[in-house]
Amino acid sequence: MKLTIEKIIYGGQGLARIPETEGAQAGKRIFIPFTLPGEQVAVDLLPSAHGQSHRGYASGHLLQVEKASPLRAHPACPYFTRCGGCHLQHATYAGQVEIKRGVLRETLERAGLQHLPEISARYGDPLAYRNRMRLHLQTQPNFAIGYREQHAHTLVPIAQCPIVTPLLERCLDALRALGEAKAIPEGIHEMELLANPDTPTILLSAFTSQNDPQLRAHSETFFAALSAQVPELAGAALLQRGTGRNASPETQTLLRWKAQSLHYRVGAYSYRISLGAFFQVNSSLLASFVALVTEDARGQKAWDLYAGVGLFARVLTESFSHVTAVEVAVAAVEDLRHNLAGLPATVVATTTESFLQHALEERRVSPDLAILDPPRAGLGMDGVNLLARCRPRRIVYVSCDPATLSRDLKALIESGYRLDRLHMVDMFPQTYHQETVAVLVR
Question: Is there a smaller number of Cβ atoms within 10 Å at the N or the C end of the chain?
C-alpha cells in the first residue's frame, strides 16, 4: 500500500489515510511509526489483536520510504526501531523540536483553546543527556541486559545507549561484563541507575520478586563487585516488587548497601535525592528548565503543589516570604524536608487535592504563585476546581502530557484565568515525550 504521511501525532507515529482504492478500509486513518510529514511510503496493513483493523483506524508497518522528508536523519543508535525507548531518531533534532511544537499546538486547539500565545521552544543536548536509566535483565538461558522492544515485552540486548550520560554507559559496560561472568544474582530482573555526572556519583536500585536471604547475600557481593569496576557507585538497594495481576504495588526494601542518596547540583542549588525519589532526567537542560518555571517569581506566598524533592520550592524561597511545598510520595518527602531545612518554607505531606480543600476550609490568603507539576494524569477536574477557588494570582503549570494539560487549561481559563505564556521544553530528545510550561494569570 502506498501512502503519504500527513503529520506526526503524539506518540511519534505518522498519520496517513488509506486510499479510496482499498475497498472496505478506504478513508481510515492509519498510523505508521518511523515516518515523517510529507513522506511517501510503502506500508503493510497490520491486523489488530483480534485479527481485524480497529473500527476507526488501522496500524501499519513501514516497508520502504519512497520519497524521504528533508527532516530525515540517520539514527544515532543501532537499536533504534527495535528498542522501545526512542521514537524520533529518524528525524533531525531541529525537526524533532518543530514536530513537538506542532503536536502541542494541535492538541491544545483540538481541546477548544483559541488565541494561543506563541509556543517558544527550549532544548539542550540531543544525546548523552539522561541521568537515569532503567534496564531489564535476563539470566537464563544466557545473560542479556537491555530495554524492552517497541510495544512488546521482548528484551532487546544493548551494548550502548547514546541518550544516557557517558558515566551510565560505562556502568552498562560493567554490568554486561559481570552478568556474562554470572556475578549478577539470577533473582534480579530489573535495575534503575541514577547518576550525578558532575560529582560523579551513581545510585543503583535492583528489583526482584523474591524475598530470599541467599539472594540478599549474593546481591551484597554483586554490589561490591560493581563498585570495584565503577568506583562512582556510591550506594545500592535490593527491592522486592510483586509481579502478576494481583501483586501488591508496594515495594519492600530487602537490602541497603552504603549510601541511599546522592546530592545533585542544579544551578546554584544542591538537592539531596534518595533512591526511589522522582527527579528530572535531563542533565543538560535542568538548570534552564528550573529558571524558566521560576522566572519572574516573587511575592509573599508561593505554593509548590507537586514538590518532589523541592526542585522549584528551593528556588522560590529566595524570592518569596514563605513557600508551602506539598508532596505525597514517601520516597520524596524526607528529601524535601532536608532540602528546605532552615528556609522560609513549610512541607505538607499530603495530596494536592487535600491541601487545596483544607486551604479553602481555613480561608487561607490566596498565594501570589502556584506551581504545579502533576503526574501524567494531570490535575483533574476536582483539582482544577479547588485550585481556581483558591484564586492564586499566577499559575505555572508544568505538564508531561499535552492531552491532560489541554483539558486542565481549558477549565482554568473558563474559571477566569488567561493563558499568558506557553513553552515546549524538550526534556526527552529522540522520544515523543515533552514537557510544557504554561503560565496563567488572573
Answer: C
Give the chain as a 3 state SS string. CEEECCEECCCCCEEEECCHHHHHHCCCEEEECCCCCCCEEEEEEECCCCCCCCCCEEEEEEEEEEECCCCECCCCCCCCCCECCCCCCCECHHHHHHHHHHHHHHHHHHCCCCCCCCEEEECCCCCCCECEEEEEEECCCCCEEEEEECCCCCEEECCCCCCECHHHHHHHHHHHHHHHCCCCCCCEEEEEEEEECCCCEEEEEEEECCCCHHHHHHHHHHHHHHHHHCCCEEEEEEEEECCCCCCCCCEEEEEEEECCEEEEEECCEEEEEECCCCCCCECCCHHHHHHHHHCCCCEEEEEECCCCCCCCHHHHCCCEEEEEEECCCHHHHHHHHHHHCCCCEEEECCCHHHHHHHHHHCCCCCCCEEEECCCCCCCHHHHHHHHHHHCCCEEEEEECCHHHHHHHHHHHHHCCCEEEEEEEECCCCCCCCCEEEEEEEC
- Entry pTM: 0.94
Domains of the chain listed by start with CATH number: 2-72 (2.40.50.140), 119-123+282-441 (3.40.50.150), 132-264 (2.40.50.1070)
Tens digit of each residue's pLDDT (9 = 90 or more) over 87-114: 999 999 999 999 999 999 999 999 999 8
Low-confidence ranges of the chain (pLDDT < 70): 48-55, 242-249
The confidence score (pLDDT) of residue 52 equals 47
